[in-house]
Amino acid sequence: MIIVNNELVAFIAEGNTEQAIIDVLLDHDALIYTRENVLQEEVIRCRIGKKFAKQYLNKSFGSKIHVYRILDSRVENFIVPKAYQPKISEITNLTTRPEIEMLFILLHNDYKKYTNGRYKKPSIFVKENYSDLKKVKSYEDNFQFWNSHYDDLIRVLKQYKSYHQNEATIADILR
């Protein structure tokens, strides 16, 4: 396990798609962190602070942990019990609103079509308009798709950031 700046990182993904995208980025060494910097070298799917603390912070690491939460909500709380707070250096939310599937819409150059349409959720738009993914919310399908379209993934992450300059996004932790 490699510790950068005297801290480890924990990536907490809201869903399968977010998890798949972070795994692709880690596998391609595209982030400012390597998999060796990541707590237990895996993307975590535990979104409740108390549960995360009990499950992952009960050990001694010799360094603090920077928690990155990849989620679409701006208001979802992540409360870590006081006893575990000294083990965390920072909690950063990397937003993917309205949903991570927005990246797929950007990939297909349909941002204007989506924003001017009747769709509330990008995942519904993606299901109805594209056949690239059989299961829009599937880890395996998303991992395979984005892994084989890695350069496009980097491009749409940066494009998404250009629309959300005042928020932290996945693009902020790209190399």
Describe the structure.
Strands 1-2-3 form a three-stranded parallel sheet. The radius of gyration is 16 Å and the shape is globular. The protein has helices at residues 16-27, 49-56, 102-107, 111-115, 122-129, 139-148, 150-163; strands spanning 7-13, 64-71, 88-95. Helix 1 (16-27) runs parallel beside helix 6 (139-148). It contains seven helices and three strands. The mean pLDDT is 93. By secondary structure, the protein is α/β, with parallel strands linked by helices.
- Give the overall shape: globular
The biggest beta sheet reads: 3 strands, parallel
Estimate the mean pLDDT confidence: 93
Helix proportion:
25-40%
- Poorly predicted runs are none
Element order, helices and strands? EHHEEHHHHH
Helix run count: 7
**How much is the radius of gyration in Å?**
16 Å
Distance between the termini: 20 Å
Structural class: alpha/beta
Query: Which strand order spans the largest sheet, edge to edge or round the barrel?
Result: 1-2-3
Note the beta-strand portion: 5-15%
Got a strand count?
3
